[in-house]
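User: My instructor asked us to take a sequence, write out its structure as tokens, and then describe one feature of it. I'm not sure where to start. Here is the sequence I was given:
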Amino acid sequence: MRSIPTITKNLLIINVLAFLAYFVLSYRGIDLNSIFGLHFFLASKFSLYQFFTYMFMHGGWEHLFFNMFALWMFGCVMERVWGPKKFLFYYIFCGVGAGIIQEISQYFSLYYVLSGQPGIGITSLISTAWSDPGLADSLNAWTTVGASGAIYAILLAFGMTFPEERIFIFPLPIPIKAKWFVMGYVAIELFAAMGSSGDNVAHFAHLGGMLFGFFLIRYWKKHPDGSGVYGRGNGQQFFDRLRNNWERRKGKAGDEDITRKTDWDYNADKKAREERVDQILDKIRKNGYASLTEEEKQFLFDSSQRK
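Assistant: Let's start with the prediction itself. The structure tokens for your sequence are:
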């Protein structure tokens, strides 16, 4: 747990504690999934806060395990690349977006069910549900829980950030590139969402999280130096700028008193500095920028500023 980045670790803890609370309180007749799960917006139990709370609730141990495993596996990487604030914003933003898409899909599902009745139209459906308390109560069964929308968004982020990275997926015997892995998941979810399997899985929420994640990442790429912490370039971009800066300046004089040094002293100092920077860059490639000590960050910054 000590090696897990802060936000990812806290998300894991919160999800597990929320499920334990749901499990324990269910024996006392208190259904936390009904309170904090995302109800259909025409249902009588719907509240706006559920767009945020539903992603911390789960329907069972298996549901919780696979979501948390994926969060640990890919969330650690993306948090190290983006930093904690940007990663948390992405997670919550995509989780809410997944809930919005799920609500829209449920609205069209309800219209499809009731479209045979006289006076039911795509726009009159809302007033019909609100004027029929019995319908609003029965719609409470449409409740969405789980972090899957945000998790699928993290999978997408990993695939877009490291498209050529090879990963092993059980039970495939060979590794596949991350970009094909993500595309495969999109195809499976789209096929399942368009089908009528009745598997009680919020496939449109999964797709919704990926959709919101895709547009947010595209926005960040187009505005890498925008104002605000969430518009700044990610850790990888910062690392690339430092490395390019360093490569351009290799071989150039660095200290003001270089004229007072002998050629041997200058070359030895320059070589030691280059080796130190290369070691730090290798550490970033392996463990991310956040793994550096304050001294290493300062040394890398000072080296990149040399003229």
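For the description part of your assignment, you could build on this observation: DSSP finds 13 helices and four strands in the chain. Try explaining in your own words what that tells you about the chain.
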